[in-house]
Amino acid sequence: MDSETPYSKLDPGTVLEAVEQVGIEPDGRTLALNSYENRVYQVGVEDARPVVLKFYRPGRWSDEVILEEHDFSLELVDAEIPVVAPLVFDEQTLLECRGYRYAIYPSVGGRWPELDTTEDRVVLGRCLGRLHAVGAVSDFEHRDFLDPDQLGGEARDWLLEHEWLPPHLEAAYESLTDDLVPAIEERFRLAGDYLEQRIHGDCHPGNILWSGNGPLFVDLDDCLAGPVVQDLWMLLSGERDEMRLQLSELLEGYVGFADFDARQLWLIEALRTLRLIHYAAWIARRWHDPAFPRAFPWFDDARFWEEHVLSLREQAALMQEGPLEL
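Predicted structure:
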C-alpha cells in the first residue's frame, strides 16, 4: 500500500464489502464524513439505522494502540458514560477488509454543542468528571503520553527543516518559537507533578454531540495519558473573564465526580500554544495525501503563515500572565 496515498484503493466497493462481511446488509448509500487522519463513511442499512465505518490510516497506529482506544470506549459505556463506542462482531472490534483496518460504529444524532448556558456547562463538566474518574482507574499500556516536546519543539523543528515557512517569515518564526518552547516548559514545571491519566485527548466541541439527553462524546482516536485540563481548555472561548466563568461552571459539575488539581491551570495557554504549533505541522506532514490540499487550500498561502505567526505572538503575550483564577 502506497504510504504517500494510503487511501488510493479505498473505493465504494471496499466500503460496502466491509459492511457485508460482518453480516450487515447495506442499501448501497454511502456518505463520506469529515475526517482527514482516517476515512469515515456513513453507510445506509436495509430496514435499520445507518452505521458509521472508520478506516484507520495505514501505518499510523499498531493494532494494540487501536484496541486500547476501543477497550477504553467500551469501558466508559459500561460505566454509563455517554460515549460512542465501536460495535462488537464475534468478540472483535478491529476488523480488516482488503488490507484496511476499520471499526463500525452506530450512527447517532445530535447537534453541535452551543454551551451558552450555565446549565449546559455544568452538565458537560459532570460528564467529563465521570469520564476522568473511570480514566483514573487504570493506565494505558500502548497509547502515547502527552509530550510537550513532541507537540512543540519537534513539530517546530520539522516545519523549519522542511521549509514550510515563507522565506520572509522564517527568521521571525524561529525566533518566536525559540522563546515559546522554554516558556511552555516553564508552565509545565509550574504545574508540578500532575497525574498523567487516561483522557479523551481531543475534547473540542466538534467531538461532542448534544441532544435532549445532554452531551455525547465521539472520536477517541487521540485518547492518551495526560493532564485532565487537556479535556477542559478546548471548551473555553472568549476573553479572559469569559473563560474564567466558563471554567468555573464546568468545574462546578466536574468536582462532584473527580478531583481537579488547580496547578493544572498553568497549562491552559501552554496547551493552546502546543496545539497551534502541532496543528500546522500535522497538516504539513500529511500534505501528500490528496484529501489535505482539498480540505485546507489556504495552508500553503503566505497569508495563513502570517496569521499563524501573529497567533503565536499573542500566545507569547498570554503566557507572560498568570493562570486563570477560579
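Summary: Residues 148 and 217 are 25 Å apart (CA to CA).
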